[in-house]
Specification:
93 residues, alpha+beta
């Protein structure tokens, strides 16, 4: 069962929707190993759009740090190209 993690880490806004409302969960999934050791998985989730980044290591603290690091090192929201809307209102690349 996942648990919420409190942290003082600075987390950037979501790269997909630009909203700055994230939460972090940590878990030890049954049967999952990381180099032969019980895996610890942490995820940063966006409240608004559901985007998720995952970190998996052999201990809880490292997994949380890795997930946060992956989240803050991804492309900035402003740098992503905006989708082009068709006449039907659908986005296309």
């Amino acid at each position: 069962m996942s648990r919420y993690v409190e942290t003082n880490a600075k987390i950037k806004p979501c790269p997909f929707c630009g909203i700055n409302r994230q939460y972090i969960t940590a878990d030890k999934p049954a049967g999952v190993t990381y180099y032969g050791v019980q895996a610890h998985v942490a995820q940063v989730h966006c409240h608004a759009c559901g985007a998720t980044v995952e970190g998996m290591t052999s201990d809880d603290e490292s997994a949380v740090r890795l997930a946060i690091l992956k989240w803050v090192q991804r492309a900035q929201y402003e740098e992503r190209p905006k989708p082009i809307r068709t006449q039907q209102g659908r986005a296309r690349a």
